[in-house]
Amino acid sequence: MIFIDANIFLAFDNIADVNHKRALKILEEVESGKYGDHFTSDYVFNEIVGVTFRKKGKERAILLGEHVLKSVLMINVDDHLVKEAWKIFSTTKLNLNLVDCTHLAAMKIAGAEFIATLDKEFAQVKSVQVVS
């Protein structure tokens, strides 16, 4: 099972992004089932839509948002997940923000071992394998 981070979707959507081709390849592998089931979170969805709205406008944000909603299982970050993320955030020595820690908490709860991300800090997390 694999968690997909916002930067993968954002690079996929932006052909001028230096990581566009890499994001395309990762998403093709994900959709082929190479890593099992795939999912993301409502936090990631909010970031995708917010960044796209700010940089490309509302129409583009709606198009990308619709694509994500149709193609990826999305979990909601609830109180339990926030508390689990807070435990990780409070104790880690890694440079992960609280949202990054919600990714790790969701992965732990779902039993996911892979994360698709361009964020290099996740490579330091021993419990996950980074697909980048």
The total domain count is 1
Architecture (CATH level 2) name: 3-Layer(aba) Sandwich
Return Rg in Å: 14 Å
State mean pLDDT (0 to 100 scale). 96
Uncertain stretches: none
Q: CATH fold name, please?
A: Rossmann fold
The total strand number stands at 5
CATH domain class: Alpha Beta
According to CATH, the homologous superfamily is: 5'-nuclease
H/E element order: EHHEHHEHHEE
Question: Would you write up a description of this structure?
Answer:
There is one protein chain. The protein has helices spanning 6-13, 20-31, 42-56, 58-71, 79-91, 98-110; strands at 2-4, 38-41, 73-75, 114-116, 129-131. The longest helix has 15 residues, at 42-56. The protein has a 5-stranded parallel sheet, sandwiched between helices. It is an alpha/beta fold. It has 6 helices and 5 strands, in the order βααβααβααββ. It has one domain (2-131): 5'-nuclease (Rossmann fold, 3-Layer(aba) Sandwich).
